[in-house]
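Predict structure. Chain length: 550.
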Amino acid sequence: MAPLLLLALVALVVNLWQSRKTRDTDLEQDARLARQYIDLKIGSHARGLNMLATSPHLAEAELGEDFYREAQAFHTHFGDHIVLAHQGRMLMNTRVPLGAPLPLMPQVRGRSAVQEVLETGQLAVGDVFEGPLSKSLLLAMAVPISDPARTGQILLATIEASRFEQRLQEIPLPAGLSALLLDSTGRQIAARGRVDLLESGPPPFGKRLVLPLELVRWTLVFETDGIPEQTALLTDAALWLTALAVAAGAAYFAARSAGKSLEDGLQSLATPSTGAPARRDIAEVAQVRDRLLQLNLQRDQQQAELRQLLTQIGHTQELERKRIALDIHDDLQQTLASLKLSAAALGKADADEQQTLRRQLAQALIEQASQAVQSTRRIIDDLRPQMLDDLGLEAALESLVARFGRETGVEATFQAVSASGDELAVEPGLAIALYRVAQEALNNVRKHARAQTVALQLSQPRDGQLELRVTDDGQGLPPRQTTDSPGAAPGGADGARAGLARSTETGSGLGLAGMRERMRAVGGSLELRSALGGGTEVVALAPIGSGSAV
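Prediction complete.
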């Protein structure tokens, strides 16, 4: 029981840790969304102020009603008042009518937007200050005026600090989360929730997160009060401890019962039967024994198939050597002999008297040399297609299908389907395995199918998988090698339209066994399907990256 209790305690600690980590992750996501919301608001005001600073009415010698109306329109849309300032004096303020007396620019404790614009020539946002007209906390966003007629003048948008308070309230934050917006000096701009927690430091079970804004030098501070988290942690701990106690008790009694049942079952197996009714748990032990027997039979069958496959491979290799020897003797050797005779005749021909004969012999040499090259190329392609190494699997399969069609007269097509539209990249080991499967499948069509058409498709049905599908419309597999598709109703119209049927013979032909072994060697699988009305389909599926260089 001790390992079980220890494992349960570890699971409890891990669960509590994951719960805390999930809450921390949620806090970070909420905080970053809030920061993005504030940045977007500031960015929209900045774009509007930049557009206003390029107004053609600022080029007029005297500041008139036209620009004042544009500034009023900015105030109506964004809610910010516009100030035009020069050398510490206000030239215009939308809080008062145009031409009304205006006070001097206020002094800002901390970063001054006006001073920063004069130094950098770029848009700037300053710290909190008290407006001389509104008598409320304001923040200034300033931008230089590029018109030469107003050199040194600055356009400002004064934003009420209370508006950021409203924006903090608009952000969808979870309950128990407090937020504080501070300027570069640490002075409060806006707050939401329990600000006293932010001032006194994070609670034991809470968490504090400080994020600088991206567009201005302000800071957003977020903090959870810890009470919901503490309650949730205690609730989780209580539930886990209760479940642990129940599981420990159940495990104890179950272990005692299982041990007694196992002891009785093993004792009954060792004791000869007396004709008494069999106990229920003896059947469970018998099921284990039967399963072991089945596994032993399957192992023996697979070993027998493997021995048969190895024997067939050796026989096939000898047949292939014999075929290659015959090809070399009947084709390449005869061509080379003809080359030798033509060369000898060409050497004996008189240069002056037999020009025509020399030309004929030279032409014969060229044709025989070309035939020798073709014979050599055919023999090499049968051993290992050079195109597979030079141009890849798609080109090699396309050439294989084209040659099959020419030699058999069967209408043969090839299609490569890639989700990205690019050529499928296949490792050398996987490429040669799929190529050999295609060769064997087409060889079976040639020998047994009596097909009119055959289609070969190479595709990537899902990420990380490569599929080769060879389909023909021939006579299909014998009835003893196929069964109806799973889920098809026996007989009737539904049974006649059951589609493709899956082969149930793991050793239905040594060619099929060889194909299966090739796919198993690259971590793949092979299925043989036969339609009830004729036709056969071979489907090879393997993970991309499973083949090593060969």
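Summary: The CA atoms of residues 201 and 208 lie 8 Å apart.
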